[in-house]
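User: quick one, fold this
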Amino acid sequence: MPFNKLGLHASLVQAVRDMRYTEPTPVQAEAIPAILAGRDLIATAQTGTGKTAAFLLPILHQLLSRPRNITQAMILTPTRELAQQIDDVLLGLAYHTPLRGGVIVGGAAMGPQEKALRAGVELLVATPGRLLDHMRQNQTRFDQIHTLVLDEADRMMDMGFLPDLKRIIARLPARKQTLLFSATMPPVIAKLAGDIQRDPVMVQIGRRSAPAVGITQAAYPVAEHLKPALLRHLLRHTEMPSVLVFTRTKQSAKRLAKSIASDGFSVGELHSNLTQAQRNRAMESFRKGDTQILVATNIAARGLDVERITHVISVDVPTVPEDYVHRIGRTGRMEAEGDAFLLVAPPEEKLLVKIERQIGQRLPRVTLPDFDYAQAAPLRPPQPRSGGQGRSGRSGDRAPAGGGRGARPKPSTGGGGGARGGRGRRR
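Assistant:
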């Protein structure tokens, strides 16, 4: 069924045509009519299936017949990157309309965000923490909200946002259309849906928590200390035009990026130690293809919409199987093909078995004939002894008083806050 048969406004059909969407994806074909009919909705679908347009198109259609300069639709999402991605899609879909959207996220100045709220953007995209900051200041009323979207709801639960979500929902009108989009449906999500929704339509596309079709997966058994060397070997000897590398911590992300860059690759980083402006630049460089390799923590497992990522490499095995599914979902998007490699140390084999049980298949184990797996672990430099305790004192194992975590990076003062009109710019 083409988009013009879904009952959408002509300006939205034109925008879809401009953005070269051909036919609705399965989740769009099922969700859009239900939302247009005013129904609450719970949608679960594989990542990369077009969920963002599935809720934006019907919301924009509804807003076109409502008063202007009043915030009437709200989309809550777990990360700044995902909020920015939604806003980018919104900008394209609303291009032929007078509708305006605003983005409210942490890591950006409050002033421009307050200005956008006072101006009355019709659609607001926000992360829960920063939205609560604005709500506490009582600068803006949200009593005209008629549609609430919880996007990546399971991820918001994983990140501990449930108390914030409850506080936000308590400040919104009791009668509103509530749309819940989630890749998985754990019990906490099902309970939340039961508390805030009325007779929701259920949309489930594909087998829950399964990888997207078109992704070739493989596991590479290797000692923990050899993972960086094996990663560099793979990058040097395999054609990988666009690579997303996942690692567990921001410290290891920084070390890996520096190590890979020493081989002459163009490398970017994406982790929580960066300001929002730095994260935006890293994303844009990777999206344009100026950066071949992006080394990231799990903040990029969702909300990273980059076309033509050819490879996803996990340097560690995620402890939660669903995180693996979301990581590899960054490639093979919208029925494209991609490769996903997982570096597995012996202690991580049990985690790998859980992932295989989750996805319903055993990953092939790959050993490279031209890689030296017998390399010894590097010797650690001797640790300086702490004074005042003698040879058996333990104080040397403790961080010095006041050392703490170090200074946090200063938040960016640009972006993420202004109102964006449908006619303001092209993508």
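User: anything notable?
Assistant: The CA atoms of residues 9 and 65 lie 10 Å apart.
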